[in-house]
Amino acid sequence: MTAPQPGAPPVHVAGPDTLWDEVCERAEDTGRVVVHTTWGEWLGAALLDPDLRTLLGQDWPRYRKAPDPAGRFVFAASRLLMKHTAAAVLGADPADLDIAYQPGGRPTLRGFGEELHLSLAHTEELIVAAVSRSGPVGVDTESGTREISYDLLRSHVCTPAEAEVLDVLPDGERTARFLRLWTLKEAYTKALGQGMRRRFTAVGFHWDANGRPVLAEDSARARSWSFATHLVQDRFLVSEAHHRVEVEPRSPSVPQKPVDDGVPLARTLLFPGPGRPGGR
Fold it and tell me: The domain at 11-247+264-269 falls in which architecture?
């Protein structure tokens, strides 16, 4: 089996009126797309769109019941981002799509079953969404500057093999790798539809010779997954897990030059691996 390719860096979308060409192009080329934004960039749509109730659909009661304004705005912005991204991928009107939730909380689109896979994550002001037509996908995000207690979290997140590697690293490097490991496990369990119901210590990762994360399990099933972590807006980690399922190719579109929106380009984060400088 050919190993699936890791995800390309997330696409920045500055609001519902952004040019969606790059999102459509990415989805056509790879079968999926991950996007990122800040809730402030979608605040105008959440506050001023007279059709907000229609756009939120079944999520309207949850939006209204959010206990504080900031929570309502984040909720609305995240659902609008997901709907507009899915609509761009499908060539549909966002108002015609309705988000539902599977057991465990994984979002889905009513009427699309396993044809389309969704994932959503947010931290601080950042919101990340993924839409896939080529198999289950999961995303998670965390601030790369978050302060953590490794000693407290170690036994809840790491397998013995992972802990053995992390324990000997300098504090700063250990925190960076731990946060990436944590977000990868969050993304993976989301893609499985298990979320927090699966113990993170039951999932093991290591980094290959190219510095990319792979499942520690050596099997055809494990090799059908791809993982990547990107740095967006210079400080947020965005991890993606994707289980590749072959789909019928779509008609190619004419490539469009991405618009320079002033947001720093996302970078793919690699760890040193065997045969690489600094590799273990």
Answer: Alpha-Beta Complex (3.90)
Domain ranges of the chain: 11-247+264-269
What pTM was estimated for this model as a whole?
A: 0.85
pLDDT digits (tens, 9 = 90+) for 129-169: 999 999 999 999 999 999 899 999 999 999 999 999 999 99
Which 8-state DSSP code applies to residue 110?
T
Give residue 279's pLDDT.
36
d(CA 191, CA 255): 29
Q: Looking up tokens 């990122």, which residue turns up?
A: 36
In degrees, rounded to 5, the angle at the alpha carbon of residue 72 between the alpha carbons of residues 12 and 106 is 65
Q: Which residue in the block uniquely carries the two structure tokens 């090799």?
A: 223
The secondary structure of 130-182 as a DSSP string is: EEESSS-EEEEEEETT----HHHHHHHH--HHHHHHHHTS-HHHHHHHHHHHH
Cβ atoms 127, 37 nearer than 8 A: yes
Taking phi first (over 0 means left), then psi (-120 to 50 degrees means alpha), and beta for anything else, what does residue 142 get?
beta
Residues 6+ apart with CB under 8 A from 5: 30, 226
Secondary structure of residue 8 in the 3-state scheme: coil
CA of residue 137 relative to chain centroid, distance:
8
Cα(88)–Cα(70) distance, integer angstroms: 27
CA dihedral 181, 186, 188, 190 (to 10 degrees): -170
